[in-house]
Amino acid sequence: MSKDDCRQIFKSGIGDSLGIGSQNISLFWKGRVALYAILKAIGIKEGDEIILPAFTCVVAVNPIIYLGARPVYVDIDPKTYNIDVKTLERLNVETLRKAKAILAQNTFGLSSDLDAIFEIAKKYDLFVIEDCAHGFGGFYKGMPNGTIADASFFSTQWNKPFSTGLGGIAVTRNPEIAERLRGMEETFIKPSIKDEMVLKTLFFVRDRLGTKLYWPMIKTYRWLSKNNLILGSSQGEELKRPVKPEGFEKGFSRVQAKKGRKELGRFDEILEHRKKVTTFYKKILLDMGIEPPYEPDYAVHTYLKFPLLVKDRMGFFKLAEKEKIELGDWFLSPIHPITKNFELWHYRWGENPVAEKISQHIVNLPTHLQIDEDYREKIAKFLKRNRRNIYSSFVNVRT
Ligand SMILES: Cc1ncc(COP(=O)(O)O)c(C=O)c1O
């Protein structure tokens, strides 16, 4: 089967899941590349401003800066970990007038309150882009995440709702934006044979990686990719300064499309599993007198990660590592995983007290397919042993 056939079949699968035509979908090497392409397609240029939540991954900030635009951070709602619409409304009118777009994130699989965001966007003539890196499979008021805003993107990187190793999917219902995206999809550089070989090798290793090896493997993988020794999701420079890496504008490979078709085929199983694990965690927390994560009526939360707020984050991680408990660190700073030189990303510490506070207390429990019944019990025992280190409610960590 040709590369184009493979990609087309994968696109049709995505289109069927989202209820949109495959002409509305373009595929890129990573989610961040899809975001970059969307920003270009809506005409973002030097000096423009883009509003986004102060609780995100730095790789979602970089494309804004690569285009010469400036990120404007807005604090988050401590219940949803998404942009706080009240804070957004209170932004300086000049800032709102100057801005070109708002990025509405699906943090951990929960959609932002889009209608409230659309209202502001309409008033100030802003594009709304959904960052659905965490949100494939979720819904906002009955509509699939990624099909509601002017344009959206998904990530299919290793630890996303379903994985093609690395991958980005741009979606829009706007025919002009769709055409521009298709143009970039065609002209961006093609992944090399080496890129494809490395991805295949990583699939092989990853498929055999159990939860026991989580801590040593994650450390090795992060070190290798930081030092550009492996095809990691973030290459060294991206985490040091927002300068577009060579070869950033890259398309989607046949290897990714083939893997994507397979993973999409078992997506319902993945989603069902996450639901089961999440129901278990919620029950455990309630039994311990801890408030489970908030689920607003407007959304179906898919729990890519299950957030928990702890008092001594470092101590909690150390214990988890010692006891071989898989624990996620999203997001350890308002622009994860950046902990210094914030000014390079136009971030001023102190501006977003809720996000800053939460990033110092949040940990996340895994919900993926390898979290079987035994492992869930192990996590439950760990949580019970460390009950005193867990906040009972998000209100406790309010500033
Ligand atoms: C919120 C958010 N947006 C965007 C991205 C970028 O996705 P990718 O790694 O596919 O470039 C990530 C990656 O982890 C993310 O967490």
Task: Describe the structure in your own words.
With 399 residues, this protein is α/β, with parallel strands linked by helices. It has 2 domains: 185 residues, Type I PLP-dependent aspartate aminotransferase-like (Major domain) (Aspartate Aminotransferase, domain 2, 3-Layer(aba) Sandwich), CATH 3.40.640; 131 residues, Aspartate Aminotransferase, domain 1 (Alpha-Beta Complex), CATH 3.90.1150. The protein is built from 14 helices and 14 strands. The protein has a 7-stranded mixed beta sheet with strand order 1-10-9-6-5-2-4, with helices on both faces. A 3-stranded antiparallel beta sheet has the order 8-7-11, with no helix packed on it. Strands 3-13 form a two-stranded parallel sheet. Helix 1 packs parallel to helix 10 and helix 2 runs parallel beside helix 3. The model has no long low-confidence stretch (mean pLDDT 93). Bound molecules: pyridoxal-5'-phosphate. The site of pyridoxal-5'-phosphate (PLP) has 15 residues, from helix 2, strand 3 and helix 3.
